[in-house]
Amino acid sequence: MGPIEPDDLNVQSSQRFRRMVDSVGVKRFASDMELSTRQINRMLSGAQPNPVERIIRSLQCCEAEIGDETLSYICQEAGGYFVKEEGELDTAAATAVRESAEAIAAISDGEITEVDENEVREAISALIGLLRTVQDRRGGEPPRGLIVRTRPIAPAPTHSG
Description:
Elements: H1 6-24, H2 26-33, H3 37-45, H4 51-61, H5 64-77, H6 89-107, H7 114-137
Helix pairs in contact: 1-2, 1-4, 2-3, 6-7
């Protein structure tokens, strides 16, 4: 998947941002974002870029690896995980093997640190990417035997404080 064309980016990000705001209302969204309703309305009207568009543009401007790390962090904060689709079976398989080996090495000492958790997350993501690549090659037909399904990301937990 390549970068979204500028016009499509603006339209798609505006639609997604509007859905986010509409889901809770302008006042609550603005309050939770620590912004004024005027600022949110300016974003909704297109007078200034919205956060969805800014995130995508930020990811397009940086090195791919750093962008992937950022996406992974965002997905983790939302209760899910980032799966990068490699496209080619050989690349997906090599990535899955490498990430799995790194995860095994990271947890082999019996202590699981935050860095180790990230290694395991990356391995799971790479393995799911490999499964999706295999499924795509079969025309969407699921593999014989055990079927792994991924679920949509759950809503982010609310923080009380």
